[in-house]
């Protein structure tokens, strides 16, 4: 993999830390700003909504800018809103900073996905995607637990300051490593043509699966802190450890998934998806036992990100004629799930179903994705059989 691709991962690390760190800060933010835990959890949904809106919009705008200029602009906005978030006493302002930060993050990731795919051979999009998303998993391993620890020591605002500081070297890395040319080069297709190519049934199904799987991931991940303290019965000091375990699993999942996503995507999605569904149910049943919680959090992190990163790469394969917008729509679809998941989990908690309930919601979301994938595969087989029959009758 090109070295510049790893440097892009530095910026993704800073942004991933911001996106995920609230899972360890939700109770503190709720107390400090005088809102409920589900309301504070909605900050994750606000970020995801910004990502959904921003990904295709920013990807379209970035077509007019140089690759380096677009990435640096998005990073500068991202850094600034974290400074504002660190000093505000208004929950409304904090929500607004999450939305604007998400717009910047969405634009950066959409351009970075296209840039990463353009740095490698046509058949290596899965490995390129997994390398870039390695920054996200490192954020789970290092950034998110560190943010939770900073929150416990000096308050949740310290975590926002830390993200702003980590973003500074990311700006330098992008400025030094990314060429200044347009994101798609001189042969980029017309925007209208790219939009037409996004009508592919295969792409639509892939995006739907991504939204469902990521919804399951964020549904549980957002409420891991209260799960660990209220259900498993561990002290609050264990929250960073649990988050680190999930992150370590996600790093393994992306690394392993990237090696197989290009050659055997079907096996990764079917096998990994089935195991993921069973794992969420098992964690819901065994969350009262510390050893079960710790072990399954690690496993579920690996399965969630292994399946998720494979779906992102498959979205890029499904839209070869939409190099600008494919990454944007993949980012948007996954963040539809990231918005839906915490909302569903918070709704279940608010209905009095307890802190295990997001785990059951996650299991249902993955089960639905498996049904959708099975139905789509059946329709593809029927169309293929129909084409073969017509071909044989014509001869």
Can you give a write-up of this model?
With 395 residues, the protein is mainly α. Helix content is 83%, strand content 0%. Helix 1 crosses helix 6, helix 9 runs antiparallel to helix 13 (290-318) and helix 11 (239-260) packs parallel to helix 13.
How many DSSP E strands?
0
Structural class: mainly alpha
Number of helices, where a helix is a run of at least 4 consecutive DSSP H or I residues: 15
Kindly estimate the percentage of residues that lie in beta strands according to DSSP.
under 5%
In the predicted model, the low-confidence regions spanning at least 5 consecutive residues are none
Biggest sheet details: none
Distance between the termini: 47 Å
How is this fold's topology laid out?
Elements: H1 3-20, H2 26-33, H3 37-62, H4 67-87, H5 91-118, H6 125-154, H7 156-177, H8 191-197, H9 201-221, H10 224-231, H11 239-260, H12 265-286, H13 290-318, H14 325-350, H15 357-394
Can you tag this structure with a few keywords?
mainly alpha; 15 helices; 395 residues; single chain
Concise summary:
This protein has 395 residues and is mainly α.
């Amino acid at each position: 993999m090109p070295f510049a691709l790893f440097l892009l991962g530095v910026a993704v690390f800073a942004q991933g830390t911001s996106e995920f760190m609230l899972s360890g800060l939700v109770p503190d933010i709720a107390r400090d700003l005088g809102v409920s835990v589900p309301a504070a959890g909605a900050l994750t949904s606000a970020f995801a909504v910004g990502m959904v809106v921003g990904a295709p919009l920013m990807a379209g705008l970035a077509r007019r800018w140089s690759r380096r200029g677009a990435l640096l602009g998005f990073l500068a906005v991202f850094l600034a809103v974290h400074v504002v978030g660190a000093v505000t006493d208004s929950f409304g302002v904090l929500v607004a900073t999450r939305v604007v930060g998400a717009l910047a993050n969405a634009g950066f990731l959409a351009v970075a996905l296209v840039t990463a795919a353009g740095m490698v051979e046509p058949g290596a999009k899965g490995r390129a995607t997994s390398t870039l998303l390695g920054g996200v998993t490192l954020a789970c391993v290092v950034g998110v637990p560190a943010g939770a620890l900073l929150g416990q020591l000096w308050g949740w605002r310290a975590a926002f300051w830390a993200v702003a500081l980590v973003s500074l070297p990311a700006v330098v890395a992008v400025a030094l490593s990314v060429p200044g040319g347009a994101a798609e080069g001189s042969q980029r297709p017309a925007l209208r043509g790219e939009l037409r190519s996004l009508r592919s049934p295969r792409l639509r199904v892939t995006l739907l699966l991504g939204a469902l799987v990521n919804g399951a991931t964020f549904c549980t991940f957002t409420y891991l802190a209260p799960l660990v303290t209220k259900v498993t019965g561990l002290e609050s000091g264990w929250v960073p450890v649990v988050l680190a375990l999930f992150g370590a699993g996600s790093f393994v999942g992306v690394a392993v998934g990237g090696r197989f996503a290009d050659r055997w995507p079907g096996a990764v999605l079917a096998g990994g998806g089935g195991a993921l569904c069973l794992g969420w149910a098992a964690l819901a049943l065994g969350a009262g036992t510390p050893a079960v919680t710790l072990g399954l959090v690690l496993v579920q992190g690996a399965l969630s990100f292994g399946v998720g990163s494979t779906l992102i790469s498959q979205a890029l394969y499904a839209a070869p004629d939409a190099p600008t917008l494919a990454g944007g729509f993949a980012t948007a679809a996954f963040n539809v799930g990231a918005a839906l998941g915490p909302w569903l989990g918070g709704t279940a908690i608010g209905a009095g179903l307890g802190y295990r309930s997001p785990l059951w919601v996650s299991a249902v979301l993955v089960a639905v994705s498996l049904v959708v994938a099975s139905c789509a595969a059946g329709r593809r087989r029927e169309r293929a059989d129909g084409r073969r029959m017509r071909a044989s009758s014509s001869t």
